[in-house]
Amino acid sequence: MTGYxxxxxxxxxxxxxxxxxxxxxRFLDLKLRGQLPAALEDAIAARVRGxxxxxALVVAxxxxxxxxxxxxxxxxxxxxxxxxxxxxxxxLGVPGPDLALVLAQPGVITxxxxxxxGGDDGAAAAALAAVDGALGExxxxxxxxxxxxxxxxxxxxxxLFGARVQIAALAAAVPQHVARRLxxxxxxxxxxxxxxxxxxxxxxxxEIAVLxxxxxxxEELVRLASHLDQARLMIDSAGPVGRRLDFLIQEIGRELNxxxxxxxxxxxxxxxVAGKATLEKIREQVQNVE
Length: 290
Prior knowledge:
By secondary structure, the chain is α+β, with helices and mostly antiparallel strands. The chain has 3 domains: 3-68 and 114-142, 2-Layer Sandwich (Ribosomal Protein S5, domain 2); 73-103, no CATH class; 148-286, no CATH class. 63% of the residues lie in helices and 14% in strands. The chain has 9 helices and 6 strands. The chain has helices at residues 38-51, 75-92, 99-103, 122-172, 174-192, 201-214, 218-236, 242-262, 266-286; strands at 3-11, 14-23, 28-33, 55-64, 71-73, 109-111. Helix 1 (38-51) links the parallel strand 3 and strand 4 (55-64). Helix 1 (38-51) runs parallel beside helix 4, helix 4 (122-172) packs antiparallel against helix 7 and helix 5 crosses helix 6 (201-214).
């Protein structure tokens, strides 16, 4: 699900601004931007993961206050990074590194802001408070999108319910359809055979029963109805449901495939194809659900 949130917080002489941008993603892909202590990065990541289950998120954190400049260059780390890059460039036969490449190496630029694990004051507390504010705005925006997605999914599920009712009605006439086709084939066969002959009604009834049993889709229709009911309940419930809906969509597709494989009439096959087309639209939307 997409969304944007900004949070600003001030604690003492420290000011933090946090921007969170989220786009659709099947899993949670979190990227943090900003020169922050490792412990503070971990704390921010934990806050975000506790609030968001799916999506590609970019969290940009800007801190002002604390030690002058807010960041410093670790000369020892820069020297080590430079030596390693020079050696690598020599081995590869390429030009040596420039200053920008050295500064981009992990640990070369560090923050002067101290992380207070209690979050009671200072820049760390401001950062965490700003993260909470940004997550609140993000949640409100994503909730509005979620309401629109829920309405869309309900409509698509109604279409699948309709397809299921249609298939059930068509399936009720399958035994008669099988009997009629078998009688017609046997009649043509007996007419082609020299001397004709009468049909064995008992044997014919047995064959009809076997064919009707092979094409019976009662169990699949029962499971399909159950899956659709569960999907509707999930959409109307609170909390993250995206991954559970993913699973249900797979099971609904499995039942439709089985029904299609057992189909003995063009009408049922057509209804199954239409249902699978609707299911694919649901599958695409479910990827965007939290």
